[in-house]
Amino acid sequence: MAERMLKFTTVARKTPEKRAASERNGDFHEIYADFIDAKATEQASRCSQCGVPFCQTHCPLHNNIPDWLRMTAEGRIQEAYELSQATSSMPEVCGRICPQDRLCEGNCVIEQSGHGTVTIGSVERYLTDKAWEMGWVKPLVAKADRGQSVAVIGAGPAGLSAAERLREEGYAVTVYDRHDRAGGLLIYGIPGFKLEKEVVERRTQRLADGGVVFKLGFEVGRDATLQQLRDQHDAVLIAVGVYAARDLTAPGSGSQGVVPALDYLIASNRKTLGDEVPAYDSGELNAEGKDVVVVGGGDTAMDCVRTAIRQGATSVTCLYRRDKANMPGSLREVANAEEEGVTFEWLAAPRALQGDAEAVTGVRAIRMRLGAPDASGRQTPEEIDGGDFDRPAQLVVKALGFEPENLPQLWSAPDLKTTRWGTVKADVRHQMTNLDGVFAAGDIVRGASLVVWAIKDGRDAADAMHRYLMTKTGAAALIAAE
């Protein structure tokens, strides 16, 4: 009812309680508490129900945010959950890790008017966590068996989202992944203080219970070629993400103690999952007792600096060559890192790594300024003469972004077309590659991006694959009739 809404002028914005930095720095549990029912209802009632919902249009999944906020405010929690999950395969994941400050909440009308945005992400998380608690999350039920099978290469958010929709349509779905757990970067890349692993595991278990087959520890190129998977299945989806780290081009970057961000995060996540991790135990991928420098300004860099704090680093410094306003990562994550004791050196870049081949001992950096815009419109960082400074470091983490691996070479698939950036070339209309029946989705197509975009791409690819396989069924039926 209308009187339950539009309370943004009388009800202040309130986020869920956040654990104090002194408490959370000692573990990898999520830092935000859950909303209680009354608080979720109260905060949802702040929505202005505007005629043009910019929150919805700026959500990659175009979630029907105003309507499920209204339902939450009215106490219709199960209906609100059902509406939120209708357009998203993992609403509780997006509620936790999406950069809402850059997407839905950043474009909230009442935020623009100075009243503080609706806490959309926290309500989204609340709805699905409540649904799991109350048993409203229904098992995955497939339609009648279509007699066709699909291979999904990659068990990250794009692959899992596609697998869910394809299985619902009655296809036999097999998900292949190189890791020993499904979830991709949701399991091994994103730390538990942002996304506890049981949140992902219950999603993958739901898929397995619904008939999706997972072949883990399976590496395309080693255990099978792309062509062999094509021969076994009626369609194939490439959803492997981008894993090759961009390198640090500075003297000394090959020294021991200079490590890629993903190697560092995977080791930490494996350790928290209870695995044996020799590189962690030896100290190679462990920040305990060390001065740590992380190079980069994206969300991966924020994950690294906050992980180092929890591992007991002596000091943690983040170097980023642009200023805070131009960093690609979430400002919310920067604020959390600052609370936890991370030092940020804005407008600073590494010039050389000190020490020798056996051990890095420090980073010589240089101050930068922003000059003329480049072709993309962003101001180009320029070195300031005489702006050198040193930071001690026994561990340097390279968080400069990710590039695609050379899939045509790795998979013995020289005919698979890629772009000049190395991403797989897929038709924007139907997401099929140049190979018949082979589709691609997620970061391997668009480049390193957000989980929410991967979920959207996976869902779109599944719909395109369904249309493609339906045409094959039709052709087969015509042949049989003749």
Automatic annotation (TrEMBL):
Pfam families on file: Fer4_20 (PF14691), Pyr_redox_2 (PF07992)
Molecular function terms, GO-annotated: glutamate synthase (NADH) activity; glutamate synthase (NADPH) activity
Record-listed E.C. numbers: 1.4.1.13, 1.4.1.14
Domain spans labelled FAD/NAD(P)-binding: 149-458
Gene3D superfamilies: Alpha-helical ferredoxin (1.10.1060.10), FAD/NAD(P)-binding domain (3.50.50.60)
Boundaries of every Dihydroprymidine dehydrogenase domain copy: 25-135
InterPro entries: DPD_II, FAD/NAD-bd_sf, FAD/NAD-binding_dom, GltD-like, Helical_ferredxn
Keywords from the named record: 4Fe-4S, Iron, Iron-sulfur, Metal-binding, Oxidoreductase
Protein name stated in the entry: Glutamate synthase (NADPH/NADH) small chain
Protein source organism: Caulobacter rhizosphaerae
Taxonomy of the source species: Bacteria, Pseudomonadati, Pseudomonadota, Alphaproteobacteria, Caulobacterales
